[in-house]
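To: structure desk
From: M.T.
Subject: fold request, one chain
Message: Could you run this one when you get a chance? Sequence is below, nothing fancy, just the single chain.
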Amino acid sequence: MTTNEETYDIVVVGSGGGGLVGAYVAASRGLRTLVIEKTGLVGGTTAYSGAGLWFPGSAPIVRAGVEDDVESARTYLRDVVGDSSRERLQDAYLEAGAQLIDELEKNPWFRSFVHAPVPDYFAGRPGASVAGRTIFPPEVPAAELGDHARLVRGPIPSERWGVDQGPVLNGGRALIGRALAAFLETGNGSLRVDTALDSLVVENGRVVGVDAVSDGEPVRFRATRGVLLAAGGFERNAELRAKYQPIPLTGEWSNGAPGNTGDALLAGIAAGADTDLLDESWYVPGLVQPDGLPVFQSGMRGGIWVNSAGERFMNEARPYDQAGHEIARLHVETGVSHIPAHWIFDQRQVDRDSFGGPPDQPIRPEWFSSGALRKADTLEELAKLIDVPFGALSRAVEKFNGFARAGVDEQFHRGETPWDQMFHHVIPFPFLPELNYLAKPSPEWPNPILLPLDTPPFYVATIVLSDIGTKGGLKTDEHARVLRPDGVAIDGLYAAGNTAAAMSGHVYPGAGTPIGSSLAFAYRAVLDIAGAAT
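Reply: Done. Structure tokens follow.
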């Protein structure tokens, strides 16, 4: 039985990018706003990310001198999503992004976002941008955040391997730290960590609050204006993944935050909500680390991936969501195991790019002692290590080496798109400085991401199917209002981020679509709650 009760104007469930930014927008309008967070740290999966926001036509893009406009982005979205039922959501997203950034940049905590040249993921499609439409928050010293910094979830290397976080927050941690400080300093914001959603409180068909468990004690948080569910997806819930997804990953391979077990999704369903896209995830290839678990792999520039038959099967450098979906499709449809896949490379690539750490440093011993990385003097020995037919592997390498020397991948066209090429141009990555080592060019080869595999020893690492969250959830309208199966909005209930079904449907249009959607629809929700929706 609930014994404690508190009342606010708005209750936000979840403290990722959408939750905290939405909470700031509400509190800055004078609404008494509570954020509850299931774990002891704020930030969710956003804290693991680069915090890219795919916001076409926004001020940082204009300041960078990039030619872009919302109409060309609308053309692009319509084409790549290909689902007319999502057009109103797309229009709401495009309108909200630029407006939100204009509002945030007026607050000194957010300062000025910056554009970085990350190309749209579907090259050559109508409206696609080579320069990209992705913006990033500026880094922030932990000292500037003061006590707020200690509440921000650490990056994956810190959480998993104890790597020092350093004195500066960048990427997703910078966005979370800035949003947290801005929210709490409005004077209208409250935060409760270690507070898990149990259920929604529904009275006369309206959601009027949430029942939660805070530090082990039941408590009811009433919301006089509305409840915003922004608690991530259900990627860490093996039972839900087995129920809804074609490849029922257990969640151990996910790069989603550990608290993302679908609590908000289940609470919404119990309150009568409709759902959509529950079979979908933001899939990514995952490179298995010495601790036995994968990390989101992007920007692959050398070597090849082969399946259990020893055959190369895709452009290994294609955008990560497309690569992840292709691994999943081939694994299900071909009858040949593609999970795990084997990443084959040689000493030439190690000399150029290093492996598993900064450039010009030897491979750390734990990669070999754990078995996460193995090596052999010949391809035949390597084939035995991974139990694939040597003949097939030899043919795959021979064919690839011919492409490398010609500079053209005639089989899978690696290196031909702006996204592929981004990783061998000298591009600074201020938003994720640990990626700067990827920018070393290779002028001695026609295509710097097609190096021949001919310099022993040969190495093999393991690629599995990972994700950065599920992308299906509660069905919402253009104001982020949660809908019943008959299309009628549930009064008082809103959803954003991976708690809601993605406006982009089955595709990933460009860097920053997931977090951008979370922020944009949290913003739309608050505008509706505040009576200012346009």
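Reply (cont.): The longest helix spans residues 87-104. Let me know if you need anything else for the meeting.
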